[in-house]
Amino acid sequence: MSASAPSSARPGAARGPQGRAGAPTSGGRSRATPGAVPTASGRRRGRPVLVAAVLLALAALVAAALLSLAVGSRGISPGVVVEALLAPDRSSTDHLVVLDLRLPRTVVGLVAGTALGLAGAVMQGLTRNPLADPGLLGVNAGAATAVVLAISVLGVTSPGGYVWFALAGAAAAAVVVHLVAATGREGATPVKLTLAGAAVSALLLSLTTGVLVTDSATFDQFRFWQVGSLVGRDLSAVAAVLPLVAAGALLALLLAPALDALQLGDDVARGLGQRTGAVRALGALAAVLLCGGATALAGPIAFVGLAVPHLVRALTGPAHRWLLPLSALVAPTLLLLADVLGRVVARPGEVQVGVVAALLGAPVLVALVRRRRGSLEL
């Protein structure tokens, strides 16, 4: 009797080697084509399809930006918008509306949306939690507490003045969350990060609420920032936040291969040469820079960072080299379209973009849950 078992009886032979492009066939070989990326449903998307998706998302972003510049209480034709951008005439009322009112608003939407989309994708990959959003590390709660204290104690009144306080509060909260989660032998695991973030957020929320219920003047100012808005922010506020958002975006894109390795589990990631602790620290830093900058600029806007990565992942699959760039394009498109919709549904008034984004993002997330039979997977 032979000592060796047939190849078909060996452990793992029925499944075959796992390739990066997808599941193997019954014969043990993967028939995935080079460059193909598996989607959440198991279907492979070839590189040309994904490149076409990126180009289509870029075209949609340009169209959304033009709509943001053209639509409002004063309708302006796309031709006049382009003329105002390329050959501005300060004597033209339409040009002044485009340049002084709508251009800063559109730039804020582009920067904040890009930051939120990238931050959401990074946080979901970093924690392997499909419900992770950019505020998981206490960033939103820290920014809100700092803004409330700036209004109540220091008398800051302008949205441009909130920026630095919101950034400082977001960074401080994230540091506290990471220090709490890093205690113990295992270090900052995904579960500990989630629990520490929830605990610190609850603590900061109670502090914020305590100040607001005792200071009506602070509450009147804070509520306009809290709902999330692109109005009232000028380009100087964008200039203050843009370097931080750019640094966070670059760091997030560079971490794409490491985030892919983390999806296989910490043990496998270490076997592939990844330093999981360093990856999580750098990923948390990228998320803080991105989400802190977006929150400081536009206030805490919900559902964009949560829903957009799931929407994109349905096309690209789990590969972060495609997920991150597409999220960075789709999120600002959604945010700008939400802002445009808020301008036209309640004329002559407006609905704040944070409200409209939640109304648009929630049905998308529910549809994805129903499509995947009640569960969201990474």
Automatic annotation (TrEMBL):
Q: Which UniProt keywords apply?
A: Cell membrane, Membrane, Transmembrane, Transmembrane helix, Transport
Q: Which InterPro entries match?
A: ABC_BtuC-like (IPR037294), ABC_transptr_permease_BtuC (IPR000522)
What parts of the sequence cross the membrane? Answer: 49-71, 103-123, 135-156, 162-181, 193-214, 234-256, 277-302, 322-341, 353-370
Subcellular compartments: Cell membrane
Q: Which GO terms describe its cellular component?
A: plasma membrane
Q: What is its main location?
A: membrane
What membrane topology does the UniProt entry give?
Answer: Multi-pass membrane protein
> Could you give a single Gene Ontology term from the biological process aspect?
siderophore-iron import into cell
Composition-biased stretches, type Low complexity, lie in: 1-24
Single GO MF descriptor: transmembrane transporter activity
Cite the residue spans of the region called Disordered: 1-42
- Name of a matching Pfam family: FecCD
Q: Gene3D superfamilies under this entry?
A: ABC transporter involved in vitamin B12 uptake, BtuC (1.10.3470.10)
PANTHER family listed in its UniProt record: FE(3+) DICITRATE TRANSPORT SYSTEM PERMEASE PROTEIN FECC-RELATED, FERRIC ENTEROBACTIN TRANSPORT SYSTEM PERMEASE PROTEIN
**What's this protein's family per the entry?**
Belongs to the binding-protein-dependent transport system permease family. FecCD subfamily.
Protein name in UniProt: Iron chelate uptake ABC transporter family permease subunit
